[in-house]
Amino acid sequence: MPELPEVETIRLSLDRTVIGHTITAISGSKPTIDPGNLPPVSGRKIAGTARHGKFLFADLDSGSSLVFHFGMTGNLTLVPGDEPDPPYSRAEIFFDDHARLAFTDPRRFGRLGWAPDRAAFIAGRRLGPDALTISRERFLADAAGTGRRAKLFLLDQHRIAGIGNIYADEILFAAGIHPHSVLQECDPVRLSLIATAVPYVLNSAVDHAADFGKFPETWIIPYRACGESCPCCSSPIDRVVVAGRYAYFCPFCQR
Ligand SMILES: [Zn+2]
Known about the structure:
The chain is of the alpha+beta class. It folds into two domains: 4-124, N-terminal domain of MutM-like DNA repair proteins (Alpha-Beta Barrel), CATH 3.20.190.10; 136-249, Helicase, Ruva Protein, domain 3 (Orthogonal Bundle). It contains six helices and ten strands. The protein has a four-stranded antiparallel sheet, with no helix packed on it. Helix 1 (4-17) runs parallel beside helix 6 (188-207), helix 3 crosses helix 6 and helix 5 (165-175) crosses helix 6. Residues 230, 232-233, 235, 250, 252-253 line the site of zinc ion. Zinc ion binds at residues 230, 232-233, 235, 250, 252-253.
């Protein structure tokens, strides 16, 4: 499931490829897009890109934005003019140089929409600060004031936007914190370990283009499965259910 590092990697790739391009048409169908809710964008240039949490914005020269959410399996691929559609292409944005941006999504949970104002869209969704730009002070104050368990806090998009199931596990592994730890009961040193782990894990993942095969060998992500061993201490990896999904952790390294 695309989380902040995957979406940021897509954003950086859009920055290199489509800024300044003029849109000639958008095609696609429900549920990926609702053509009836898209204003005419033909003739509009892509002026820039932005990301907040797991939402990606392609800002148009009109001041409005195309909004992408990648659901479980969404991705964007720039296709040269005469090449066929990639598999599972659900929507396409056509450009005046005959290239097109294909929104591929095997599972069909992704969405392409439009927002007249990016800031209002973010506010309307009540998204918390982006996980890569939240200040350390804000994070520590929010964490210290919550009776929630560590993993649930990290997953709450209204508190901090962009972290999902997989990177939450990595952040807590890096911090040495058990996913069920109640944050209010953690001392300031333990909270500060989490505050340090958030930007460390997310920035490192972006630096590796969110490619799991290139992540440090000391990370837990490649070992998030039953029967695997901790890459640091070789203890068997354990799991608990948090918010209906498994949190994988090392019972020795994460107390
Ligand atoms: Zn361990």
